[in-house]
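[Q] Does anyone have a clean structure-token version of this?
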Amino acid sequence: MSENRNTVARDFALQFLYQCEAEKVYYFSPSHFETFSSNFNVPTNSMTMMRDLVRATLDKRNDNDPLIEAFTKNWKLTRLSVTDRAVLRMALAELQVFDTPVKVILNEAVELAKRYGNEQSGAFVNGVLDGIIKSGKAGGDGNERQSVSGESKKQ
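[A] Here you go.
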């Protein structure tokens, strides 16, 4: 795993979201988060981004799932692997909420999909996210975005 704290945060966020899916926890639970972070020794310098990314992903899940499904070319979201679904949700939430360059989000999402998914996951995630971004539908809600340090910025 890379030593970059944001890459580490995304990696642990994906693992946490996978666990949430397995346990059918579709909202941010501070106690669930703290237990996970403690059990898996999440580095302190990655904790804030991980928390913010997980919270954004879960908060935007109901709005973003139909958007993701619209770009999966005849695939229902339930047919996707849990890992691919979590990577897509997380990347889309980061595009909408954080002030991270699009290229970084795409690269990180593809690498996570390759690492945790199957041999087609990287290309699949890249294609879906690329389609959403090119459509102009990936934008946030126009309110606040966060820098990777967790500081809010007005748009």
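[Q] Thanks! Anything notable?
[A] The chain is about 65% helix and 5% strand.
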